[in-house]
Amino acid sequence: MFDFIRGLVEEVTDEEIVISACGIGYSLTSTLSSRRAVEIGREYKIYTRLKIRDDEAYLYGFISKEERQVFNMLNSVSGVGPKVAMGLLSFFDLTEIRSAIAGRDSKTLSKAPGVGKKTAERIILELKDKLGNVDLTGVEPLNAKCSVYEDGELIDALVSLGYTSYEAERVASSIDKSLDLESKIRMALGNLSR
Length: 194
Hints:
Strand content: 15-25%
CATH architecture of the largest domain: Orthogonal Bundle
Largest sheet: 5 strands, mixed, barrel
Low-confidence stretches: 138-149
CATH superfamily of the largest domain: 5' to 3' exonuclease, C-terminal subdomain
Number of strands: 5
Oligomer: single chain
Radius of gyration: 17 Å
C-alpha cells in the first residue's frame, strides 16, 4: 500500500521515527540503525511496510530498500513476526545477518532478543537460499550492535540521568571506545549539553 514516505522527521523515540508528510504525522516502528541514521528537522525518504494484525495497522520504516527486503524475508519465516524481525535488524547489520545465515550460524542469530535456537535454525533453513539474492553492495554496516552493546553501561548511565535511550545511543556512538566509563560519561554529558 505504501512503498515509501518522504517527509520531515519530527521526532525519534526509542522505537519509532515520526515523519511529517503533507500535513500528516506517520509513526513508523523502525530499527535502531534507521533511527540512528536520521536527524530531527531533516527530510528523508523512508521505505515502509504496512502490517495489519488484529484489526490494527502497524507501519514499519526503513532507511534502505535492502533493510526492508530483509525484514520481509525474516517476517516470512514461520514463527518470526515483525517484532523478532525488527529485533534481529536492530541487533545485527544486514551483512552480519546474511553471513550468519550463509554460515549456518544459529548460535550467532540466537544472540538477538527473542530469537531462540529453534527459531534461529528455522531462519537459516528457510532463508539460506533466498538471502544471497539480496544486493548489499551499497549498504554500509552501521555498527549499531557494537555501539549499543559495547557501550551499554554508558547508555544506562545516561538514561538514569534522564536522557532518552535514543539520545544516549546517539551520543555513545561518537565517544572514543578506549576511554574508561567515567571519562565516557563526562564526554557524553559535554556533548549533550551543547
